[in-house]
Design a protein that fits this description.
The chain is an alpha/beta fold and 243 residues long. The chain folds into two domains: 2-111, Tetrapyrrole methylase, N-terminal domain (Cobalt-precorrin-4 Transmethylase, domain 1, 3-Layer(aba) Sandwich); 114-241, 2-Layer Sandwich (Methyltransferase, Cobalt-precorrin-4 Transmethylase, Domain 2). 33% of the residues lie in helices and 23% in strands. The chain contains ten helices and twelve strands. It has helices at residues 17-24, 42-49, 58-63, 65-74, 89-101, 113-116, 142-150, 173-182, 210-213, 232-238; strands at residues 2-6, 28-32, 53-56, 77-81, 105-108, 127-133, 156-161, 163-164, 169-170, 191-196, 204-209, 222-226. Strands 3-2-4-1-5 form a five-stranded parallel β-sheet, sandwiched between helices. The protein has a five-stranded mixed β-sheet with strand order 6-7-12-10-11. β10 (191-196) and β11 (204-209) form a beta hairpin.
Length: 243
């Protein structure tokens, strides 16, 4: 059996009882840390579970994912993922491979940026698009990003910021906003919400005009919410975080 389990947004304290029980009875445990940031401690996680944890990267999870799935044919394999295990499409491919090969699988959900975004006061049902703002050298889909942000109407757009954990690189808020301005998707006078390190003790929320953020240093990881029409309850809430 293959078990995909989410680690949540912060550290090893985000483990659920179900995850601990499944991991303790597993034959092998993997942890991938390339699709998202995890603030936990590997040694502490191993102590909690009483098992050795094998770190895997992009190659093992994408090019060689069939090996993990094949292991799950005869053994109980747990793959831990930061956040929720199905937020990244990469992990969905593991489940698809299990379906193809008729191998049993289980998914244990946990908190993700999607569930945590409610702390900003934004009504989640009004988020119409989720886009990733890329590093310059990765930017190859200007039209989709531009149209998603510019044509949002009354709705909000959640902008995730690109990361490259293998090279320890993180796109910051200033770079992301300059990208949106450069492709004519956003103006400096529009109002946005920036949320930093959601799900951790150091989470922060900021609300204000784009130009206010161009000289503001914000801890990463962070997300940007480009606002459409704001409901009065959203407005009242957000005014507490104006910059």
């Amino acid at each position: 059996m293959l078990i995909l389990a989410g680690l949540g947004l912060n550290d090893e304290k985000g483990l659920t009882i179900e995850e601990i029980e499944e991991a303790k009875s597993a034959d092998k445990i993997y942890l991938e840390k390339y699709t998202s940031i995890w603030f936990g401690n590997l040694d502490n996680l191993e102590k909690i579970l009483g098992k050795k944890i094998n770190l895997i990267g992009r190659r093992e999870l994408e090019e060689d994912s069939y090996k993990i799935v094949e292991e799950a044919r005869e053994k109980k394999i747990v793959v831990f993922v930061p956040g929720d295990p199905l937020f990244a499409t990469t992990h969905l491919s593991l489940i698809l491979e299990c379906l193809r090969k008729k191998i049993n699988y289980k998914i244990i959900h946990n908190s993700s940026i999607i569930s945590a975004i409610g702390i900003t006061g934004i009504h989640f049902y009004k988020i119409c698009k989720i886009v990733t703002i890329p590093f310059k050298e990765r930017a190859n889909n200007f039209d989709y990003i531009k149209n998603s942000v510019k044509n949002r109407g009354d709705n909000h757009v959640l902008c995730l910021l690109d990361i490259d954990l293998e090279k320890n690189r993180f796109l910051n808020v200033k770079e992301a906003l300059k990208f949106l301005i450069d492709i004519n998707a956003l103006s400096e006078e529009e109002e946005i919400v920036v949320a930093s390190r959601l799900g951790t003790e150091n989470s922060r929320i900021f609300y204000g005009k784009v130009k206010k953020f161009l000289d503001l240093s914000i801890d990463l990881p962070a997300v940007i919410i480009v606002l459409g029409k704001i409901h009065f309850s959203e407005k009242e809430y957000l005014e507490n975080f104006r910059v």
